[in-house]
Write a structure and sequence with these properties.
The complex is a heterodimer of chains A (109) and B (118). Chain A has 109 residues and is mostly beta strands. Chain A is 0% helix and 54% strand. Chain B contains no helices and 11 strands. The chains are: A mainly beta (109), B mainly beta (118).
Chain lengths: 109, 118
């Protein structure tokens, strides 16, 4: 079973500050690690795929890194619209299995 | 741009069967991609339910497998989720989404709230 852990659970920051979110996988797999942003009442929005590739339309202040079991999402300078919950996601291709981390909430300090 | 939207009953009693449909527009579900259901209990995180390929091969969350069926209706460009014997713990917003073979879920429906209560 794939298990993802995220830290911290909550990150309290001010606009303009940088944010570093961590995601750790229970198994070392290929880099099919993705990051999503979710705001209240909305579906998740894909930000990063394959650990470090930005999805279409995602601002350059969002970047992903990591491999193996440890991954990071970095927001270089927080904009007001970036305060949200962030989930990491991992999918194993065979046998197919998909899992999300528990999320990190980035809120305004 | 691919669009998806979920439809189905908003309220169920325990032990009943949940049936949801996801309608897809601007993309033929038989042309490729994988079609996924994900849910989110109120105030909690995301849980993968299961996925069906455009050829009908299914993949289910092991913790839910015994109660799940996901199917395609290519004539209506829809795919569906059935969950039997629902309980209060199945109360959640249910999302449908598209994902490619080597790409995570990218297009999502807006989600539909399903409440299970006696």
């Amino acid at each position: 079973e794939l298990v993802l852990t995220q830290s911290p659970a909550t990150l309290s920051l001010s606009p303009g500050e940088g944010a570093t979110l961590s995601c750790r996988a229970s198994q070392s797999l290929s880099s099919s690690l993705a990051w999503y942003q979710q705001k209240p009442g909305q579906a998740p929005r894909l930000l990063i795929f394959d650990a470090s590739d930005r999805a279409a339309g995602v601002p350059a202040r969002f970047s992903g890194s990591g491999s193996g079991t440890d991954f990071t999402l970095t927001i270089s300078s927080l904009e007001p619209e970036d305060f949200a919950v962030y989930y990491c996601h991992l999918r194993r291709h065979w046998p197919w299995e998909s899992t999300f981390g528990p999320g990190t909430k980035v809120d305004i300090k | 741009q691919v669009q998806l939207w979920e439809s189905g009953p908003g309220l169920l009693r325990p032990s009943e069967t949940l049936s949801l449909t996801c309608t897809v527009s601007r993309y033929s579900i038989s042309d490729g991609s994988y079609w996924t259901w994900i849910r989110q209990p109120p105030g909690k995180g995301l849980e993968w339910i299961g996925t069906i390929s455009h050829t009908g091969t299914t993949f289910y969350n092991p913790s839910l497998r015994s109660r799940l069926t996901i199917s395609l209706d290519t004539s209506k460009n829809q795919f569906s989720l059935t969950v039997t014997s629902v309980a209060v713990a199945d109360t959640a917003v249910y999302f449908c989404a598209r994902e490619a073979s080597n790409y995570p879920p990218d297009y999502w429906g807006q989600g539909t709230l399903v409440s299970v209560s006696s």
